[in-house]
């Protein structure tokens, strides 16, 4: 595996997700990054104005501004659109970045626990998932490498490779100790893994592990005026990564009609009732459980 030297550690992509912001601040203050002295880590809070106001973004979602066409579009001049271009200069350019890894720190209001979100399936991500799962058995490892290319407009795409640490449930603009601790623990494991790989040290990685694979999104029912007609069922709310069988109730209309999962596979929901997705009326994302084998890469 190619050695990874230059790493960007990013907090505050969303200004109201406090764990990443405070983890970066804490580690910069305490000079924690020196612990991985073989790595060249740049830690940064990337949307300071949104952080100051404790809002997700000022004008547009920064984490959707990194499409190749958007970065090249000089007519896009909103606050986050310009910020994305600046970040692309500092940590990119996308497609040709010297940063081998970008770790983007996020919170969710959904009950996802500590979730490692991986954009690709390759030796690095598969072994990283195994390493994190071995050291944090309660963590959820989620692959979204099958999300369509045109949706690959996340901030982490500016580097050669990116991973997201997504921890919840935590309300927006709130900092909770348990959530911060989980984020710190997972981020430490990621950096340890990179350093151990670089040093060709032996790694504690299981032969295989359970993970989740993105499958689709479920939306709340809306009327022709775009008003919601229902909500996520209490049987599902807060039950991220718990199995939903075909025919099981997932939502309910305000008139009491049950809406069932119509798929033909056992689904595992995440981002259930996520606050940030209110505009799209997203009810939840669904995934399938998969078993990842590390044998071929060890
Ligand atoms: Zn976020």
Automatic annotation (TrEMBL):
Cofactor(s) listed in the protein's UniProt record: Zn(2+)
Keyword rRNA-binding in annotation: no
Residue runs in coiled coils: none
Cofactor binding note: Binds 1 zinc ion per subunit.
Residues given in the record as Zn(2+) binding sites: 14, 17, 106
Active site: 166 (proton donor/acceptor)
A GO term from the CC aspect: cytosol
GO molecular-function term, one example from the UniProt record: hydrolase activity, acting on ester bonds
Alphabetized InterPro entries for the sequence: AspA/AstE_fam (IPR050178), Aspartoacylase (IPR016708), AstE_AspA_cat (IPR055438), Aste_AspA_hybrid_dom (IPR007036)
Succinylglutamate desuccinylase/Aspartoacylase catalytic domain span: 4-193
Keywords in alphabetical order: Hydrolase, Metal-binding, Zinc
AstE/AspA barrel-sandwich hybrid domain ranges (all copies): 208-289
PANTHER family noted in UniProt: ASPARTOACYLASE, SUCCINYLGLUTAMATE DESUCCINYLASE
Entry similarity comment: Belongs to the AspA/AstE family. Aspartoacylase subfamily.
Protein name: Aspartoacylase
């Amino acid at each position: 595996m190619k050695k990874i030297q230059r790493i960007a550690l990013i907090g505050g992509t969303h200004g109201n997700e406090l764990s990443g912001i405070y983890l970066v601040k804490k580690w910069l203050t305490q000079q924690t990054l020196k612990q991985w002295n073989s790595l060249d880590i740049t830690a940064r809070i990337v949307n300071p104005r949104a952080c100051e106001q404790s809002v997700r973004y000022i004008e547009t979602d920064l984490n959707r501004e990194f499409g190749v066409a958007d970065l090249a579009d000089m007519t896009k001049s909103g606050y986050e659109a310009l910020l994305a271009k600046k970040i692309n200069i500092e940590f990119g350019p996308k497609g040709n970045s010297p940063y081998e890894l970008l770790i983007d720190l996020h919170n969710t209001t959904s009950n996802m626990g500590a979730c490692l979100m991986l954009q690709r399936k390759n030796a690095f991500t598969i072994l990283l998932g195994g390493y994190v799962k071995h050291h944090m058995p309660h963590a959820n490892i989620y692959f979204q490498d099958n999300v369509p290319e045109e949706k690959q407009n996340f901030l982490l795409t500016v580097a050669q490779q990116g991973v997201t640490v997504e921890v919840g449930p935590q309300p927006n603009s709130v900092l909770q100790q348990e959530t911060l601790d989980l984020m710190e623990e997972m981020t430490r494991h990621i950096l340890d893994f990179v350093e151990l790989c670089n040093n060709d040290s032996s790694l504690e990685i299981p032969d295989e592990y359970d993970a989740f694979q993105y499958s689709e999104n479920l939306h709340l029912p809306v009327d022709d005026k775009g008003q919601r007609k229902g909500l996520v069922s209490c049987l599902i709310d807060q039950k991220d990564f718990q199995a939903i069988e075909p025919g099981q109730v997932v939502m309910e209309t305000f008139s009491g009609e049950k809406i069932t999962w119509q798929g033909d596979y056992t689904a595992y929901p995440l981002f259930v009732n996520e606050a940030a997705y209110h505009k799209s009326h997203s009810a939840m994302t669904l995934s399938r459980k998969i078993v990842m084998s590390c044998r071929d890469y060890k």
